[in-house]
Amino acid sequence: MNTFRNVLGGLLLAAVLWFSSCAQPPVQLPELPLDRVTPYFSEAAEVQTIDTSFYHIKNADGEQIGTLLFSMPYAEAVKGYNGNTPLVIALDTENRIMQVVVLPNHETPRFAERVAAAGLYDSWNGLTVEEAVEKQVDAVSGATYTSNGVKNTLVVRLQAYQRQLQKDYNVKPSFWQRVFGKFMK
Q1: What tens digit of pLDDT does each residue of 52-107 get?
Q2: Domain span at residue 125?
Q3: Residue 165: inside a domain, yes or no?
Q4: pTM
C-alpha cells in the first residue's frame, strides 16, 4: 500500500511540476506615461497598471474611462511577413474595442499599407472582446502574411486578457485545476 502511495505521490508531483513549467511567468508592464494614452483617451488623467497585465485609464474624477492592451510580449510568438506586428488595443468601459493601432514593426511598408487601406484595423471596432476573438476576418489579398499576423496577434492578446479577467472574477476552475486541487488539500 505504501509503495502504491509513493508511486502515486511521485506521479502527482511530476505532473504538477510539468504543468507548472508550462505556465508563462507574469509579464511586468512598465509605467505608461500619460502622453502615450491621450491619443486613445483624450480625457485621460491617470494610468493605472492592473496586475501586470493591462492598463486602466481614468479621467480627472478618478473614473475608469477605458483599458489599454499592448500585444507584446503576449504575442511574441506570432509572426507576420517580417516578424511581429505589435498592436495597441483600446477598450471602452464595456470592453468593446474602440480602436486597434499597429505599432512600429518590420513589415514591408507596402504590405502594411495594404492592410491599413483595406480597413483591417477597423474590423473589430465596436465588438466586445469575446466577439472579436470569435470573428472571422478575411486576410488582405496581396498582404496575407501581414494581415494574418495582425489577426493572430489581436486574438492572442485578447485571449490573454480574457484569462486575466476570469482569474480576477474567480470563474469556475478548469478540469485540471479541480483535479489537482483535490490532491493538494
Answers
A1: 678 999 999 999 999 999 998 888 899 888 888 999 999 999 999 999 998 888 88
A2: 27-173
A3: yes
A4: 0.72
| CA quadruple 130, 97, 159, 150: dihedral sign | positive
User: d(Cα 44, Cα 74) in Å, to the nearest integer?
Assistant: 25
Q: Please answer whether residues 129 and 115 qualify as being in contact, where contact means their C-beta atoms are separated by less than 8 angstroms.
A: no
For residue 180, is it within any domain?
A: no
Output the nine-digit C-alpha cell for 64.
Answer: 475608469
| The three grid cell numbers given for residue 147, joined into one nine-digit string | 494581415
